[in-house]
Each structure stands twice: as C-alpha cells, then as structure tokens.
C-alpha cells in the first residue's frame, strides 16, 4: 500500500482519484510516500524519510522549502493554472471594490437599521450616495505585474472591460505570452508600470527578487491615487510602505488577500482571508491535478509539473522500471548504463532530462532489479536518488 499524508482541505474529488486497493490516504500517516497539501507550511518541520514527493494543490510553493528537498530526491509538484480563474474573478471584484464606495456604502446602509420612517430612510439613502460615488474602470490603466497563468487572464479580462493594460514580467514564458492579448503593452521595469497605472495587480511568486517589491521607492514612483491589489503573497508588499502610502493619499485603496496585524489595526485596507483560490471549481481542479501527478509519479516515476525536477515521462514497456536522480554533470548517465551493461542487463527504453543542476532518468530494463543492483546504482558518484518503480 502506498500512503499519502494530507494537510488542509483537499477536495474529495481529488482524494477519490487514489485507487483504494493500492493507496491509503490519511492525514496522520507516519511513513507517507507523499504529501498532498495546500498552504500548510513545511518550513521547520521534520519530513519522514519515506517521503518521495510533495504535491501542492495550488500555485505558490513558498510554503515548501523546495531547495532543501531537491538533494534528497524529493520531487515537488504544483498545479499550474488550476486555480487561475478563481483568482481572476476575485481580482475583478477587487477592481470594482477599489473603484466604487461599495463596502463603505453598505456599512452606511446597515447603520440606518433603526430608521423606521420610510420617507426619512429614503432621504438618508439619497443623501448618503453623494459620499460613496466612484469612477469607472473603462478607460483607466491597469498594470499587471507577472503575466503567468493568473496575470494573463486578468490582462485579457481588463482589455475586455475597456481598460488599457500594461504588463511587466521579465521572465515571461513563451507559453504564457501566447495566452496574452496583443493589446497588452509591455513595461520595461516595475517603476515604469507604476508611473502609468491607475490600478496595479500583483501576480508573481514570493521569491527573492519579488519579496518587498512594493516598498517606499516603488510607491514614490507610482501615480498618485493608485489602487493596489495583492492577491499573490503578503511578502511582496512592505507593510509600513503601504500604510504610509494609504495615509498620504498616494494609494487610494489597497486590497489584499493577506491580512497582517499591522494592516488590520490600521484599518484602511480591504482585506480578505486568503480567499483567491477558495472556489469549489478551483479546489477541485487543483486536487484532481495534484492527485493525478502524484499517482503517475509514484506508480510510473513520471514527472509532470514539478517545480524542482525536469518534466520526464515515458510509456511503460513490458519490462521493469528504474528511476534515478543525479547531479547534472558529464559521465553519470554513462556510468550507470555501463554498470547495467556489465551486469548483462538489457535496457528496453530510456529517457533522460536535466533542469539546472540536476538530471532525472527513467530506464526500463528487461529483468527485475535486485536490492543489490539498486544499492550499486545508489553508490555511483553523483547519483543521489534511485527507485525501482
Ligand atoms: N490568493 C490566492 O489564493 C492565490 C495566490 N496565488 C499566488 O499568485 C502567484 C502567481 O500565480 P500564477 O499566475 O498561477 O503563477 P505563474 O507561475 O503562472 O505566473 C507567475 C509569473 O510571474 C512572473 N515573474 C516572476 N518573477 C517576476 C518579477 N520579478 N517581476 C514580474 N514578473 C515575475 C513569471 O515569469 C510568471 O510569468 C503564485 O505564485 C501565488 O503566490 C496563486 C493562486 C491563488
Ligand atoms: O495556489 C496558491 O498559491 C494559493 O495561494 C492558494 O492557496 P490555498 O490552496 O487556498 O491555501
């Protein structure tokens, strides 16, 4: 039986993908083959040595110390794009919340609960609306920082709303570029986008170059009265800088999925409890995709949508399957193949791919690998993980 340890609320339809005759899915498994989680933080947590893979049902992997796991051969997966539509729709809501006095006007109406006279109530309603007027999105400029799965959807939606759109993404993939409307203008750098945007929405991962990207310097480059939407990660925005920008009027509004003590106490941001991906559809998409990827890896050694290993897949042949991970340097693959040849083990099929400093190989061989063979392969210099699948 293979064991999957789950964390967080994983959609049942995803968990049901694990065949019950071969998989035990359990939140408290002590020797799991894999972990399946959403935002649960793995930093500072001891990982059982049995773990071969981790699937993040979602996009961001900053809750997982990926670089610590790679040398142990632990493959980390995410589910690119599976919750992008859910986030896009909450950005749309945020654009509207940031442009009209919707929440304040609702509070105003709620404050009229004691007014029992219909004529007086009507007067107060009509008097109140002066205070909560807004402006329209059409014709305004939206700056989209990060044009991946989510950013591209938002950029295209904003074009459909009649907005002008500027995008900034120095690492834009060809695949993401194909998704993007040709009407999206490219900014050379973040400050140039900020200087021209009435609304700015962040859709980048929390990584070294992006952490704290919205700081005092960025706000001073920004257009006065800008609306900032951050449904990506709290770490992208420096709390003190955003509070100063709200107080000075540099920011007309700040909407964020990442409440912090300081922002809540300050009271001027519109804060959601990390709701971006919390739709039935997104939760199901992510859970199904994560489960399928784990099953294919645990059953066949195939790797799809990993954030630390190359994409490697091979149809099963009639033989037995070995997989190994190694440092991406010359001669390791040759040494392993020579070792198999010396033992008269015939290779039926093979695929080898590399990514940055590591390589991963799937080899189908004619005879069942013995424990001694696995041991020999593991002892090849620069091979750091071997598995019979
Ligand atoms: N609030 C929520 O519930 C959710 C939040 N997220 C957050 O949104 C982030 C983006 O998600 P996806 O669009 O699905 O990821 P993605 O990987 O498809 O797109 C990220 C984009 O950011 C770009 N990028 C990287 N560094 C950059 C930089 N310094 N400046 C500008 N662009 C940069 C990349 O080139 C890529 O195109 C996730 O990493 C996660 O942190 C994602 C899903 C749900
Ligand atoms: O996919 C992401 O990056 C998210 O932030 C969604 O997080 P969640 O799955 O709702 O805990």
Automatic annotation (TrEMBL):
Catalytic activity: (R)-2-hydroxyglutarate + NAD(+) = 2-oxoglutarate + NADH + H(+); (2R)-3-phosphoglycerate + NAD(+) = 3-phosphooxypyruvate + NADH + H(+)
Residue ranges of domain ACT in the record: 321-389
Known function: Catalyzes the reversible oxidation of 3-phospho-D-glycerate to 3-phosphonooxypyruvate, the first step of the phosphorylated L-serine biosynthesis pathway. Also catalyzes the reversible oxidation of 2-hydroxyglutarate to 2-oxoglutarate.
Pathway stated in the Swiss-Prot or TrEMBL entry: Amino-acid biosynthesis; L-serine biosynthesis; L-serine from 3-phospho-D-glycerate: step 1/3
Stored CDD domains: ACT_3PGDH, PGDH_like_3
EC number per UniProt: 1.1.1.399, 1.1.1.95
A UniProt-annotated Pfam family: 2-Hacid_dh
Family: Belongs to the D-isomer specific 2-hydroxyacid dehydrogenase family.
InterPro entries according to UniProt: ACT-like_dom_sf, ACT_dom, D-isomer_2_OHA_DH_cat_dom, D-isomer_DH_CS, D-isomer_DH_CS1, D-isomer_DH_NAD-bd, NAD(P)-bd_dom_sf
Coiled-coil positions: none
Name this polypeptide is given: D-3-phosphoglycerate dehydrogenase
Keywords: NAD, Oxidoreductase
Keyword Ribonucleoprotein: no
């Amino acid at each position: 039986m293979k064991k999957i340890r789950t964390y967080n609320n994983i959609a049942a339809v995803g968990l049901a993908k694990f065949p019950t005759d071969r998989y035990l899915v359990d939140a408290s498994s002590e020797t799991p083959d894999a972990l399946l989680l959403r935002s649960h933080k793995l930093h500072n947590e001891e990982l059982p040595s049995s773990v071969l893979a981790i699937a993040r049902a979602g996009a961001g992997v900053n809750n997982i110390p990926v670089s610590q796991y790679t040398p142990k051969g632990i493959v980390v997966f995410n589910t690119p794009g599976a919750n992008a539509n859910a986030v896009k729709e909450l950005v749309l809501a945020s654009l509207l919340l940031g442009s009209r006095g919707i929440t304040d006007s609702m509070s105003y109406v709620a404050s009229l609960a004691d007014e029992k006279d219909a004529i007086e109530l009507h007067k107060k309603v009509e008097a109140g609306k002066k205070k909560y007027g807004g402006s329209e999105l059409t014709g305004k400029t939206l700056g989209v920082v990060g044009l991946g799965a989510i950013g591209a959807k938002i950029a295209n939606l904003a074009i459909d709303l009649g907005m002008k759109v500027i995008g900034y993404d120095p690492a834009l993939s060809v695949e993401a570029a194909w998704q993007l409307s040709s009407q999206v203008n490219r900014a050379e750098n973040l400050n140039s986008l900020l200087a021209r945007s009435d609304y700015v929405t962040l859709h980048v991962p929390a990584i070294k170059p992006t952490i704290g990207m919205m700081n005092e310097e960025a706000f001073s480059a920004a257009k006065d009265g800008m609306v900032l939407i951050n449904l990506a990660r709290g770490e992208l925005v420096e709390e003190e800088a955003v509070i100063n920008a709200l107080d000075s009027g540099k920011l007309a509004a700040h909407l964020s999925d990442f409440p912090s003590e300081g922002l809540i106490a300050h009271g001027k941001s519109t804060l959601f409890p990390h709701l971006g991906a919390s739709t039935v559809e997104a939760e199901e998409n992510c859970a199904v995709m994560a489960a399928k990827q784990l099953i294919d890896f645990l059953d066949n050694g195939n790797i799809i949508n990993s954030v630390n290993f190359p994409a490697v897949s091979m149809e099963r042949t009639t033989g037995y399957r070995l997989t190994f991970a190694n440092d991406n340097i010359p001669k390791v693959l040759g040494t392993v193949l020579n070792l198999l040849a010396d033992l008269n083990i015939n290779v039926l099929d093979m695929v080898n791919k590399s990514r940055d400093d590591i390589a991963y190989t799937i080899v189908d061989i004619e005879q069942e690998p013995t424990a001694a063979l696995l041991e020999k392969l593991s002892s090849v210099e620069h091979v750091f993980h071997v598995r019979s699948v």
